[in-house]
Fold:
Amino acid sequence: MDADIIVIGASPAGLMAARNACEKGADVLLLERKEEIGTLPHPANSFFKGMLDRCGEKADSSYIVHYLKGMKIVSPEGREVIIETPGYSIDKTKFDRFYTEKVIKTGVNLRTGVEVNDIRKEGGEFAVWTSSGIFRSKLVIISDGINSKMASLLGLKTMKHPEDIAWGIELDIRAAGLGKPEMFEYYVGNHAPGWKTTYAPRGGDNAAIGAYVRRCGKDVTPYLNAWIERFKKLKGLEEIEVVRKLSGGDPIVTIPGEYIMDGVMAAGGAAGQSGIGYAMRAGQICGDVAADAVRKGDISKNALSEYRKTWEKEFKVEHYLGRIGLETLRKMTDREIDEMVRVFEKEDLSFIHGSACEQAMHVFTFMLKKKPSAMLKYRAFLRNK
Ligand SMILES: Cc1cc2nc3c(=O)[nH]c(=O)nc-3n(C[C@H](O)[C@H](O)[C@H](O)COP(=O)(O)OP(=O)(O)OC[C@H]3O[C@@H](n4cnc5c(N)ncnc54)[C@H](O)[C@@H]3O)c2cc1C
Structure:
């Protein structure tokens, strides 16, 4: 036996799972196919403090490139909803390395440049077949991201509504002063079917712009090109210098499905849990449950379902509300989105706080008081589109 627990993928979910399991006394081997952590980085470039708080983590200045005061949501005709909530533009390479250092200090055995090709159950243990030989453990945590090969090899259908994965491209760009503003900007409407285009200031002359769409295929280029032209007009720019282009899939509107079996759990994108913060929290829960299971000598699906119970208690309502919200948005016309945004425009929205469920309640109550007829716009959800 090489370890009690093998974690596959040094992702936000995998790093947290490995750290928590190790802190609880398990012997952990973390396998990552990249030779060097953080290169080539994942396209994620920002997150908001609220989510990090829920993971019990503090943002660290070593990976923050710019502090954000909040976000602006911009409707098709340019109406703005401003939500003040602190956030961070991050250097994802430095972020990954920050957590990797922490994980190694905890005592996790990290092996980079090791690609996992197969997982087989042999007697009472798992044989993990890799580019560097076979490693054996009592339990396996899969955190190899959204295109998880390992989950599908084991026959786990970890994601409900996989057709709703949002495909996105992020461009790192440069132009004079472009990185200075302190609000992250989201642009919603049918120019980006099903999700958004974005502008993330990254300090000084640096920024990132992105386009994310659903149900329009994986090639987002036409939407990104249109966004670049619109963005240049909006910001009065003749030219922008493109520094880097990164792309991928984000399971923002999928719902976690079957992500646990005897001796195996999946976390993060591999389990349809989208976003750095959600992946980290899933990893933490997974690591805790895995260490307890190994210690008690019961790695059955039933014992590991403690992970599902805790995850659902914390996030199930949020996931479903998020899906309903983004599906409604996908089905709305630009005009309907503008009318909806009008209800919130120029209002003080500092009352929106708490969990996503509480936030949704605040929004509904506000709309009911302010303009009950606007609630009818939610009928769009029922459209067959
Ligand atoms: C374009 C884009 C932009 C995004 N922007 C943001 C953002 O700004 N903020 C945010 O919160 N979220 C963002 N997301 C979502 C977020 O990045 C993901 O939800 C998050 O990275 C999930 O991480 P993860 O733990 O599931 O795995 P990943 O970050 O995908 O990592 C998977 C890891 O597993 C390793 N791996 C894969 N296969 C194997 C194998 N066979 N053997 C060994 N190792 C393997 C990979 O090398 C990788 O290191 C974005 C997503 C996309 C696509």
Summary: The CA atoms of residues 179 and 202 lie 5 Å apart. Residues 8-13, 31-34, 42-47, 115-116, 143-146, 149, 168, 170, 247-250, 268-270, 274-277, 279 surround flavin-adenine dinucleotide (CB under 6 Å). The chain has three domains: 3-43+93-161+253-320, 166-250, 326-382.
